[in-house]
């Protein structure tokens, strides 16, 4: 049986997740991830024809709060754990192109 | 010679900042222009182990906007994580809605001139959080301010039903009016409350053959002007490119461009190949929202007559010009005030003139709404009636309006105090007319001789009467008396 997740897929996912893997790890994870997918595939043995897809695993909905502003951390505390800062700002390597945004 | 025709196809993505006091998932205040990184907390800067809690007002504002955009509102909606890495996104994912947006399949109507409206279909509208702000002015590194991170945004996506930059602008302006009318956003462009991303390509017919040019998406436009100009620019750029290279639309041939506001051109942006692999998955930290009938109805009650419908009604019902109707309905406060004055029995056209020519100028000078000028709808209605009945002249009416705003006094009292009551008493005016006629025999001769000179001479005599009454004679009454005496 071929692997459900091949090594190229592992490399791609690792890249997207900013993980650096050595070749041995790529091979190991391909095996492990394939095993996990295979295990989950056992579900296919069940008849889910009349079962609504589940959007959330808790039988809870509508947890909302009123729109009232409260205290924030403040700049000093916000920056306290930052590896680098510049004045009131977090300092990061130069971003060249646009992108980002919501 | 080859024949070539083209039309522009534009769809819009719009982000509207909702006007909540606090952020979407935490209680940090949403305030523009504060000290950088002062309005942040462990939730919105993505510390481990924190839990987001949904802002009820943000949800309700989104539903209300969805209703105004004629959308089908989802009774069950959930949130998803959209993963990407960027310094302004502290959690490395944005909480958004992927497969179950809260509003779908609506439309917005935009004015296209001549009292007509065009319907632009809305694909979906969903609620998501904003990212922070990157600043690139510091030289060898970039700065990040996370005050904006977690601000609630409504993302609205239209079908590609727009066919010009002008139409896109018109939609943007209309949407701004709508969100302000509903009170769901301040729609302040200067503060980035509305940001646009148009998708543009061309349908070209060349020698009977049809082509589509590759789609470009222009990122992050924050003014109506940039929106319109960038689309106009793309139209010409894509046409030139097609003629030069013949490049046509293929799957995945969409490119991203930025707008250079100084040079007024769009610029290709480099993108990493994996940047659109967002790996959406359900946000496990938030539970779904179920919208009951009662809740939906409570939100629906906050819908009001929308600006374009008001604008068209002012033209139909009150006979106002389209331009004036547009000015009156630009802001809900102005429009509501106008309606209140008309409801007091004032003639709509004259009310419109007084409000657009004096009221809005004063409001602009004082940087307030027309409803905050210290004049009441009843007072303005009374003033309109006074002008209508000739008790004061139109010019005097404008002066009285200004003084009403300064003093809060009622117009009739002010007309007396300011000596602006028009003399309409025929008996009194007749004496003055007689004097003027006696002193200007030449003009009287010209006036009665008919022909070209006559009109000018009558005008002169009228002017003399006005001068003698210091402009307070009712010109209509004087004209009638003059006409009677000169015949």
Structure report:
The complex is a heterodimer of chains A (102) and B (487). With 102 residues, chain A is α+β, with helices and mostly antiparallel strands. Chain A has helices spanning 7-16, 23-40, 75-79, and strands at residues 64-65, 85-86, 89-93. In chain A, strand 2 and strand 3 (89-93) form a beta hairpin. The longest helix of chain A is centred in the N-terminal third of the chain and has 18 residues, at 23-40. Chain A is flat, with a radius of gyration of 22 Å. Chain B is of the alpha+beta class and 487 residues long. Chain B has 3 domains: 4-276 and 292-297, no CATH class; 307-417, no CATH class; 426-486, Arc Repressor Mutant, subunit A. Chain B has helices at 56-68, 165-182, 224-245, 293-300, 307-318, 322-329, 332-343, 348-365, 377-388, 394-407, 411-417, 426-439, 441-448, 452-468, 475-486, and strands at residues 4-17, 54-55, 72-73, 76-77, 80-83, 93-96, 103-111, 117-129, 133-135, 141-145, 152-158, 194-206, 209-212, 216-218, 255-260, 265-268, 281-282, 289-290. In chain B, the strands form 4 sheets. In chain B, strands 1, 3, 7, 8, 11, 12, 13, 14, 15 and 16 form a 10-stranded mixed β-sheet that branches. In chain B, strands 6-5-17 form a 3-stranded antiparallel β-sheet, with no helix packed on it. Chain B has a two-stranded antiparallel ribbon with strand order 4-18. The mean pLDDT of chain B is 88. The interface between A and B is large, with 43 and 71 residues. Strand 1 (64-65) of chain A pairs parallel with strand 2 (54-55) of chain B.
